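Schema walk-through. Below, the input block comes first and the output block second. Nothing else is stored per chain. Lengths vary across the set, and this one has 176 residues.
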Amino acid sequence: MASTDERDTSPSASDPAGPDTGAPDGAGPGASLQAFAVQLRRMNGEINRLVHGFAARQGLHATDVQALAAILDSATPLTPGLLREHLGLTSGAVTACLDRLEGAGHIRRSRESADRRVVHVHYEPSARSTARSHFLPLAEATENTRSRFDDEELALVLRFLTDLNGELGAVRAPRR
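--- output ---
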């Protein structure tokens, strides 16, 4: 980590919401926080564009697609309560989201534990092909980009993204 004296304290470097020039101001170790912010916003915007398109084609909300991703990425079946915490929604909003996803055939709910009050949410295997075909351009763009990096660089990028997601996961938005 850079010492306080080494950090760029110019207004543009200290303001992650600074002007969106779209131009990175460095690709090496000296890349500013603003350059990262610009590129992360651009990536988020492009992914959101694809998510909104999928949601519209499926008659869903963008939040429903976020829920699908959380269900898909979870190592174990999620409960509505865990999904509520992950998405930062009310229990009623999660119920409505799960109702839409179940009605569209993307998920199923089950009571598999001894405690019949516990509901688990599962991604329907038959729905995966629909998502795969829609998000194929994202997978292709990712693979095209990955092919331009060696294994060591990819490991570093993956470590950065994993650490950033861990940090972001710890940040809680204030409730209304």
